[in-house]
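Model it.
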Amino acid sequence: MKQKRYYFCVVLITLILAAVSFWTQDESVLIEGGKVVRGSPGEGEKEISLRLIAPQLGGDETYRLTVGERACTKEEREALFLRAVEEIERGFAAKGESTEHITRRVNLMETLQGGRIDVEWSVGEPAVIAPDGSIEKEYVKEEGTLSTLRAKLSYRGYEYLYEFPVCVYPEKIEGMDGIKQELQQYFDEKELLGEAELQLPQSLAGYVLKWAKKRERTPLLILGLGVIALFAVRYGAYEAEMKKRVKRRRELEREYPVMVSQFALMVGAGMTIKSAFERITDRYVRQPGLKGSALYEEMLVVLHQISDGVGERKAYEEFADRLELSSYRRFSMMLIQNLQKGGDGFVEMLEKEADHAFELRKNYAKKRGEEAGTKLLLPMMMMLFVIIAIMLIPACMTMEMY
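Modeled.
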């Protein structure tokens, strides 16, 4: 059912398009008694396709013929010139002006009536209007300057002369623009006198003028840049501190499982908490490659506090406070609990904590790997575009050569 409906739609659309094409074909293509109908004046040239048949030669070919428009009759030509004159009167003066009062550039049209009529302009004396339509200000008087414009219209060898008067006045600009224009003329006149000092006018063009020295904004600009630089330095220091803290946090998270497993192994072998601290830090001090570790440095601080007389419980509490991580707080609580209640189950707790820490470390490594893959996505896309460009550019250049 759907297939039949599809065929019906295709046939219907084809018939409609064929009918539209038949009824909209150009009548000038039709041949009437061996004649071709020309287009009306203004339609321009047309190219039509004809079927050329020569029975004696047995030829049957398509012939393309360029047919010009029909020439105007006298009445049509006069009407065409009158419409061109009306077009001049409508579009000659600027918006809001007329030929009796012109202050701005006029429109000297080169063609009229859709390009069928050519126009040649000439200006009588004084030539207050330039060939491009601009106003020659040196010829314009304050009370207005009267002149005559001539437009010679040409169409297929026929000419029509249209003359009309124009009155041009000097353009007056009001507001600040007008004051600036008057000031420019004033200073130009003063410049010709060659005076050592230039007197600033106190009134001009009916306006009272006041003058003051313009203050430079350089000090304010410097202060503004200084404030911006201050915030930039402060923000840079904050960013550096945050990066440093993030780096320290990641390092502590990475070293925690190793430290806990070592601690559980040593305590399980019968060592005390303090002895385990001493053994782990002693190894850190003896191996130069471990220098700079935040964890082991903090463990050294714990030993120094205990040797200085600070209680072990307080030293372990401050150890967790300085590291600021939940995992180290749990480790500190286990140490304090062992001091208070004894060592029953302490080793098992440490081993479970070590296993849990290693699981967290694996998840952390997995997360870091995903972040690294995401960061590599943009460079990989850029490399892909470069490869595509390397492949396409030579191919396009080769196609242009052929």
